[in-house]
Design brief:
The chain is an alpha+beta fold. The chain has one domain (about 35-310). The protein contains six helices and ten strands, in the order ααααβββββββββααβ. The chain has helices spanning about 10-30, 35-60, 85-95, 105, 245-255, 270-275; strands at about 115, 140-145, 150, 155-160, 170-180, 200-210, 215, 225-230, 245, 310. Strand 6 (about 200-210) and strand 7 form a beta hairpin. It is globular, with a radius of gyration of 22 Å. The chain starts with 8 loop residues before the first helix and ends in a 6-residue tail after the last strand. About 40% of the residues are buried.
Length: about 325
């Protein structure tokens, strides 16, 4: 009788461990499950926010540097007489690292490691509307090293009244960046599914000229993607609200739909929703769980500066 050699216990544990890792990777890449969504979304948000902040700081550092190009002394698009597509291309160049840089200057650009880079001659924008047909491979700005795909719309403008300055109009330039959380895998859609049974994998973010990144669109109403807390003033004994809420609900609790374009851009929800009407970033139907101020955020007058803000909850472990 022929003896069969079996796996030892250590070998079996190694095989099980490797199998588990592969299954987890397949889960995150193939299907945008409810369990994976908040981690993927926060990863995309945090990565963009960190990169945009660094781009703004780089521009500040170069403002008084002799020999620096004017385009490098400002955040992409934050210059006079720059067209919206050129601004989007410059944002792409400063967000993404080129894995095959043409020169040393290009090698210094970018904060997101990439495996596919189309921020040069092949750069294309996607329409602000964000139709599913727009998110084709040939329209991708770049693909990051974690396989997420990034698409950039041309620079936009929105005008918001400032209640802290006599309701004077404040014009804000911004970019809409779309991130495909699970690469080329399906469903490859940015169109909100009202029954919420099927997760949407292409999500939009707003990037402002001050380097702030704002969540927008359907994820702000769905706690499967992100949640936020209200942050109270320093004079309050509590620092944050007790329970996490959808981002949109926290905005209402902190600002009660008042908007402060200079004081706190996290309050700018209604104006962006009006600007994005008819796009995949529009919230067509949603009833928030709160209808006004958190009691610790209430103001005596609409002309008072807000005393609260919001903090996006971290999701770093999967």
């Amino acid at each position: 009788m022929k003896n069969l050699k079996a796996f030892s216990i250590p070998e079996l544990l190694i095989v099980i461990g490797i199998t588990g890792v592969i299954c987890a990777m397949m889960l995150t890449v193939v299907k945008p499950t409810d369990k994976y969504l908040p981690y993927a979304y926060y990863n995309a948000y945090y990565t963009l926010a960190t990169a945009a902040y660094n781009i703004k700081e780089d521009a500040r550092d170069l403002q008084n540097t002799e020999g620096a190009e004017d385009v490098d002394k400002a955040f992409p698009g934050d210059m006079e007489n720059v067209d919206s597509t050129t601004a989007a291309k410059e944002l792409c160049r400063k967000l993404a690292t080129n894995p095959n840089p043409a020169n040393e200057e290009e090698n210094k650009l970018g904060y997101l490691n990439t495996t596919v880079y189309n921020c040069g001659a092949n750069f294309k924008t996607v329409p602000i509307k964000g139709s599913d047909s727009d998110f084709k491979k040939e329209n991708m700005a770049f693909r990051s090293s974690n396989s997420m795909r990034y698409f950039i719309s041309p620079m936009q403008k929105v005008t918001v009244k400032d209640p802290l300055n006599g309701n004077a109009d404040v014009e804000l330039k911004y970019f809409l960046v779309w991130v495909d959380l699970n690469a080329e895998r399906g469903p490859n859609t940015a169109t909100w599914n009202s029954n919420k049974k099927k997760a949407i994998d292409i999500v939009p973010f707003i990037i402002l000229m001050d380097g702030t990144v704002l969540p927008t669109g359907f994820p702000t109403t769905d706690s499967r993607y992100l949640t936020a807390h209200v942050q109270y003033s320093a004079s309050n004994t509590e620092q944050f609200s007790q329970s996490p809420r959808p981002y949109y609900d926290s905005v209402i609790a902190a600002f009660n739909k008042n908007e402060y374009p200079v004081h706190d851009v996290y309050s700018l929800f209604s104006s962006f929703q009006k600007a994005l009407k008819g796009t995949a970033a529009e919230i067509k139907s949603y009833t928030p769980s709160v209808t006004g101020f958190d009691e610790k955020c209430t103001l005596e007058s609409v002309n008072d500066a807000p005393i609260c803000t919001i903090v996006i909850d971290e999701k770093k472990k999967f």
